[in-house]
Amino acid sequence: MSGDRDFTEAVIAVLEALEPGTVMSYGEVAAEAGFPGAARAVGNLLRTTPGLPWWRVVTTTGRLVPHAEAEQAQRLRAEGVAVRNGRVIRSRRRT
Question: Does this model's pTM top 0.70?
Answer without folding.
Answer: yes
